[in-house]
Amino acid sequence: MRVVPSEKKKVQLIPEAIVCHIDESTLFESTAKSSEKLAQDFKQHYSEFEYFSYRLEEVFGPEFTKSDTFDKILKSISGGIENGEYEHYVKCVQSNANKSQAEQLKQLFTNIKKTTAKEDLLWNIKMEMLVTVARREGCPYIFMADSATRQAIKMISMTSKGRGYSVALDVSVDNTQSFKDLCIMRPMKDMLSKEIGFYNHFANVTQFETLPYNFSTMMPGKTSIDRLTEEFIVSIEREFPSTVSTICRTVMKLTPSANMDLAKTCAICLMPFEADIGAWRQHITVTDAPDADESEIKQQSAAGCGDCSNPDGGCCSGGGSSADKEPRIDMNKFLCYSCQVNLKDYNEESVASLPPYVAENVCDQSRDSRLLSQIKDFLIEDSDEEA
């Protein structure tokens, strides 16, 4: 940042910045004209800023993976929604999809049951794309336009969805911990959404506004947790104007856990999560007792037995494809609690349609976990040296 010496007010300015827009018109056709208008406005009025526009479906391309060449998918072998438990076992298999990226994107969200899960995945995909673009362009900072009103809504909704462990990072003013080479900043965190609206009006920039749109736009309050929380906070703010500021003061006091393992991140949302959260979730989750036949089938599946009646050969006949030889992966081991709950609303098609960056994270972390389990008996810990 720099300060203009000739100005009376010593306002800090950003010497260089890029603007990244993610076009969601494949999912929301009504936003197609908004994306075109935004590109024209930047070209005519803000040409000093470099402008990038990516379509949301481009997340299925290899350029949004760490290796730039990853081309595998997660094949569900536990039934998705049809599975009565929260278990989600998958295998990393070679992708042979002949669908376009737009068709893959539509298939992904069409096969997700609840709106809350759709909105969370949409946000996670956009955040992953922003992080990838920032790294590619060498940007050390990502500026988010979250207002104080939005911060208050996010804090309540994220806590309700089970993101309390990482909520301090999700709503912090400057998040330097989630990514080693990036800082997520929210410079508008002290401004109410109403104040921003007044500023846009008096500064005559309303003509450049692009209204956001998602799965719960113009829908009833109970459509999703985020929509319900927004309606709740805004309605209280009308009668008690200090509601948002009170919540935001609480937000400012939040700090990440001292023993948070920042190297252990969720494969979908990329945020840190607690170890062994799956076991804790099973203890607090009430499920129906399975029938004897279903229990026997699950035990057989857990033992790794395939369909022996398959003429192509299963595990017992020693045949099968190369995909059958891939290790089974418990996907929940690599997800935070909130994403585990959302995964309950995914069916087999939606799991297989997850973006490559998710499959890459799951496969890489699973491989590292297997390697660690194989060599853990040979590792020397600090306690052993002291003894």
TrEMBL record:
Which UniProt keywords are given for this protein, alphabetically ordered?
Answer: Cytoplasm, tRNA processing
Domain of life according to the entry: Eukaryota
Entry's Gene Ontology cellular component terms: cytosol
Q: Where in the cell is it found?
A: Cytoplasm
Q: One of this protein's GO BP terms? A: protein urmylation
Kindly list the GO molecular function terms attached to this UniProt entry. Answer: nucleotidyltransferase activity; sulfurtransferase activity; tRNA binding
The UniProt entry, under Pfam families, shows: CTU2 (PF10288)
* Protein's pathway: tRNA modification; 5-methoxycarbonylmethyl-2-thiouridine-tRNA biosynthesis
Tell whether tRNA processing is among the UniProt keywords: yes
- Say what the protein does: Plays a central role in 2-thiolation of mcm(5)S(2)U at tRNA wobble positions of tRNA(Lys), tRNA(Glu) and tRNA(Gln). May act by forming a heterodimer with NCS6 that ligates sulfur from thiocarboxylated URM1 onto the uridine of tRNAs at wobble position. Prior mcm(5) tRNA modification by the elongator complex is required for 2-thiolation. May also be involved in protein urmylation.
Family designation: Belongs to the CTU2/NCS2 family.
The protein in question is named Cytoplasmic tRNA 2-thiolation protein 2
Organism lineage: Eukaryota, Fungi, Fungi incertae sedis, Mucoromycota, Mucoromycotina
